[in-house]
Amino acid sequence: MPAKIHFKRGAEEREIACAPILTIGRTVPNEIVIPHPRISRNHAMIRMLGKEEYYLIDVGSTNGTFLNGKRIVMPTLLKDLDVIALEDCTLTFCAARDAAAAPEPDEDADVTLTMTSVGVRMEEITLFVCDIRNYTRISESMEPDQLASLMAKWFKMATKTIEECAGTIDKFIGDAIMVRWSSETGNDGHASVTNALKAAQNLNEICTQFNAAFKQLPLPFKIGVGINTGQAVLRNIGGAGYREYTAIGDAVNMAFRFETESKNLGKDIVIGPDSYAHLPQLLWGSALRSVTVKGKSEPVKVWAITFDEIAGILAS
């Protein structure tokens, strides 16, 4: 049985099948209409990523979206029986039957043995990790409603530009976004890396717009990016009432490490060797740096660049 939402408002109760996108607001054309004066016209959405993986996203509501009693700011992965509270209405998320029935992992057992996995395949993909610089300091300095509005707009615009660059959002992790390009979306190695750079360029342009529009920001709104290409496992992983379709493996881990190195190197983007190899060597041949990253015994040669350099790279 597919995932569904149990809607309850006063005496009204009904089941709503989870479509790829369910919008929530005060009036039609939202799929879930809650006619309460404190519900925004466009309040929140439930969005599917991958297979049977649903995120709750506040889209800039005035009075907030609450999950299990806490106001959300970031897109949040829903688990079985999570309760979304919206004024006088509750929406209970019911995971797909096979995901909800997955056994609770034994904390003392090998996680690779206790994890439910189906549809496993190995594929070369390009991974892109984007993280907001100084997010903690920004969040601590803003009012909750201002922060919620800022982040809702960021994730909405970021998602749109990533998809326009043929990327697939793998997951949201706090303020970070993990994206993948693979042959399943018609990207070869060169196209994947080129599209990842286009996405980085476009996301930086959104940051520039934010800095002009949100004068109350305590620090500039900036991002750092890590890009890496390699073999990764694409599969469903499940446990404790949810299922997540995601890429896992060393190539994924390295993309996160490279994003961290972008801060250490004082650059905007750090690109791994199996990614920059898909671009003309004339561009990167004399601009490599050796970095030591967690999980690797030998230094890794990376290409560290700024957003200003992307236009010239893409024009080559």
Explain what this protein looks like in three dimensions.
With 316 residues, the chain is an alpha+beta fold. The protein folds into 2 domains: 4-98, Tumour Suppressor Smad4; 116-315, Nucleotide cyclase, GGDEF domain (Alpha-Beta Plaits, 2-Layer Sandwich). The protein is 28% helix and 36% strand. The protein has helices at residues 97-100, 111-114, 135-140, 144-164, 189-213, 250-265, 273-276, 281-284, 310-315, and strands at residues 4-9, 12-17, 21-25, 32-33, 44-49, 53-58, 66-67, 70-71, 76-77, 83-86, 89-94, 116-132, 168-173, 176-182, 223-239, 242-248, 269-271, 288-291, 300-305. Strands 12, 13, 14, 15, 16, 17, 18 and 19 form an 8-stranded mixed sheet that branches. Strands 2-1-11-10-7-8 form a 6-stranded antiparallel sheet, with no helix packed on it. Strands 4-3-5-6-9 form a 5-stranded mixed sheet. A hairpin with a 3-residue loop joins strand 5 and strand 6. Helix 4 packs antiparallel against helix 5. The chain is globular and about 70 Å long. The model is unreliable at 99-118 (pLDDT under 50).
